[in-house]
Specification:
14 strands, 9% strand, globular, 318 residues, alpha/beta
Length: 318
């Protein structure tokens, strides 16, 4: 124990250790099933894996590679080797965790199989991210280049993480996938569940506060602004739910839809192709193709009413 703690806090540390032991015991005693595992997927390790995988996807822009075209494939191979090795270790840790709940033993090479399938999808992941970046450049006149979007835009960072997390989620590494999505959420404030299905050319402008639920389905060429929620109506556990409510509880957004800042869309509603959803809209119903949904426009008061309102807001007389 470091000397700075040994002397002044000995009694306090002993008391805290005892109380933490009691808290752990109480928690474990309340669990129907205890998970006695040596390892659990590590956010720190997965962040390093994503760093290597992003470098393999974009060796110059995100990997810092400067060795010339002749050596680029070698660099990509090195980054993939490192990233996939870490990923394999973390997937294996997840399945050690799930093994405690399974009656049958997992195959010894289960983690290897998942990582092989994931590696085979890397070219498709790169193509999807390229389409997202291009959509961002087309959709944001403030952008000076596609490189700026990839490197500096929070929406691009969140989408890159989702494009990596989504296939892992589908392959069964659900905790690893969720951790990857939360790494992006922590950096950007954009919360995309790895189970959400998102088509190509997806762009999130600004992005802070965006929430996309697990069973959401988003088509091609969709644009969202900050604080958009594609959520469910009733949290599970608070009401009796059937299969549809459990497995199809988030919106479907068809192709070519724009959803402006602050819009909240809840439940398994469909936003038809080419629709526009205005800012701060609260929506629980389907919108037909080409539909436009907005709130009433703010009112500009005349002078007398403006003075009265200003006085009321400030707590004084007109």
């Amino acid at each position: 124990m470091p000397a700075i703690l040994a002397e002044p806090f000995t009694a306090e540390i002993a008391q805290a250790v005892s109380r933490l032991n009691a808290a752990r015991s109480a928690w474990r005693g309340n669990q129907a099933e205890r998970h006695e595992v040596a390892h659990f997927p590590s956010p720190t390790a997965l962040a390093k894996a994503i760093e290597h995988l992003a470098a393999a996807l974009f060796p110059v822009r995100l990997g810092g590679f400067r060795g010339g075209a002749a050596r680029e494939d070698d660099f990509v191979a090195e980054q993939l080797t490192r990233g996939l090795a870490i990923l394999r270790e973390q997937v294996a840790s997840e399945f050690d965790y799930w093994q405690a709940q399974s009656r049958d033993a997992f195959e010894p090479d289960h983690a290897d199989t998942i990582v092989r399938h994931f590696a085979a999808a890397m070219a498709e992941i790169r193509a999807l991210i390229d389409s997202d970046i291009e959509a961002g450049f087309i959709g944001d006149p403030a952008a000076r280049s596609v490189d700026e979007i990839l490197i500096a835009y929070p929406g691009a960072l969140a989408i890159l993480h989702h494009r990596l997390a989504h296939p892992l989620f589908g392959l069964g590494a659900v905790i690893v996938a969720r951790i990857i999505s939360e790494l992006a959420n922590a950096r950007t404030g954009i919360d995309i569940h790895p189970g959400a299905t998102i088509g190509p050319r997806f762009f999130i402008d600004h992005g802070t506060g965006v929430v996309i639920g697990e069973t959401a389905i988003i088509g091609a060429n969709v644009r969202l602004y900050q604080h958009v929620t594609l959520g469910a109506r009733t949290p599970l556990g608070l009401a009796q739910v059937g299969p549809r409510d459990r497995f199809a509880r988030h919106p479907i957004v068809e192709d070519d839809v724009i959803i402006y800042a602050g819009a909240t869309i809840l439940g398994r509603v469909t936003i038809g192709r080419g629709s526009t959803i205005g800012g701060n809209v609260w929506l629980l119903r389907d919108v037909p193709a080409g539909g436009v949904v907005v709130q009433a426009e703010a009112e500009l008061l005349d002078r007398l009413r403006a003075r009265e309102m200003a006085a009321e807001l400030r707590g004084g007389a007109a």
